[in-house]
Structures are given as structure tokens and as C-alpha cells.
Amino acid sequence: MEATARMGQRWVALVDRGNGYVEACDIVEWLPDGAELVGYICGTDDAAHGDKGRVVRADRHPGFLGYERRPQVVGALPGMGWTVCYRLGAPPPGGVNGTSGAECLERRPVLAWLVYDDGTVTPCDVDHDGLVYCSTDTPELAHVEPPAPASGRQT
Predict the structure, then answer these.
(1) Same-domain check for residues 56 and 10
(2) 79 lies in the same domain as 138
């Protein structure tokens, strides 16, 4: 049965809202024949279609592009001293006072590594205000640095 094969997974309907904006609308129900229903995909702008505030079939909605499975978090691992680096802007030519331009990076500690059901692992960092971010969702992500090697270890 199609409905039971997709239960427990996160699916979205991609809807073109115009001007290059594509909205990912959560699927709230699967019909036994496999057709999806999407909750409140019309928001406040499509009242002319009579769908405002209703659950409607996504594949019959104007601008429907298709369905996409989204991974779900199944676990988390500690950050273990890793650091996420974000670009704050283009470094000046030659850096500042002879530096390499590294001063244009913001470094944040990795709070946790999120493990998804599709096998991907992504870092979550915390900023100076204590807000947590999924690092890979940010286009300014430069790189992830491993922890500094411990010095003076005896083996």
C-alpha cells in the first residue's frame, strides 16, 4: 500500500509562487491511491481559488512542481571541539596589516552533529547569543575545522 510505505517520512510539495519563489509545503495526509494532500498551501494569497485555509491536493494546485522527500533527524552526536567558519565578507586585497584575510571569518563552536535518516551528518553551531543554527543551511559557510590536536599527550 502506497500510504503505509511513506508513513514516517517527511515529504513536501514544491509550489511555484512566482518571481522565482518556490515554497515547500508539508504533506499532511496521503490518500490510499497515493495522491497527496497539503495543509494550508494557499496561505492568504490564493483566496481567489477558494482554497484559503483549506487542505487541498497539491498536484491540482496552480504552480505545483512536484514532490520531494526531506530527510529527518534520527540522532545527534556531540560537537567534540569542531568549529564552523562563516565568511563575513570579501577580505581586502592582501589582508589587513599584512594578514591573509582570515580576520573576515566568524568562528563558532559546533554544538552537535545532526544525523539524518538518509545518512547525512551536518553540524549545528551556536552563536554568541546562544542561538543554534544548522550550519549547512547558510550560504556564508566557508568550512568546518577539526579540533586542535592535544599537545603533551603521553602514549
Answers:
(1) yes
(2) yes
Q: Which of 120, 123, 119 is nearest to 108 (CA)?
A: 123
Rounded to 10 degrees, what is the CA torsion of 100, 105, 108, 113?
A: -90
Q: Is residue 151 part of a domain?
A: no
What's the pTM? 0.61
Cell readout for 143 is 568550512
Place of cell 515547500: 24
Q: Could you list the residue range(s) of the whole structural domain that residue 23 is in?
A: 2-70
Secondary-structure percent of the chain, ordered helix, strand, coil, rounded to 5: 10, 45, 45
pLDDT digit string, tens, across residues 61-119:
788 898 888 898 999 999 999 999 998 876 666 655 555 555 588 999 999 999 999 99
